[in-house]
Amino acid sequence: MVTEIQNLEQQLDQVRAELHAENQRGALKDSNKVAELEAKMSDLTQQLDVDRTFFLPATSATLIASYHPIVTGKQIGRAHV
Fold it and tell me: Would you write out the chain's pLDDT as a tens digit for each of its 81 residues?
């Protein structure tokens, strides 16, 4: 899955570069191409977010926050920490 994430990151970088190049054309830029590139960037970014959320290991801070009652503020017994 990490290689898929890396592939998506590379695709996103490429689309960003294409969008930057198109925007550098100023008044001559193709507005349809810009719209397509922006939509593609949005799709790739969304897919990356999903893949990173579900397939990359959680950081130790995330693990601590999810299990440690002081960090999460979850109620323990009668006391609320």
Answer: 678 999 999 999 999 999 999 999 999 999 999 999 999 999 999 999 998 888 766 555 555 555 545 544 554 455 444
DSSP state of 29: S
Let me know: does 29 contact 23? Beta carbons within 8 Å.
yes
Expressed in angstroms, the distance from the first to the final Cα of the chain is 38
Secondary structure (DSSP) of 36-59? HHHHHHHHHHHHHHHHHHHHSPPP
What's this model's pTM, rounded to 2 decimal places? Answer: 0.65
> What is the distance, to the nearest Å, from the Cα of residue 11 to the centroid of all Cα atoms in its chain?
13
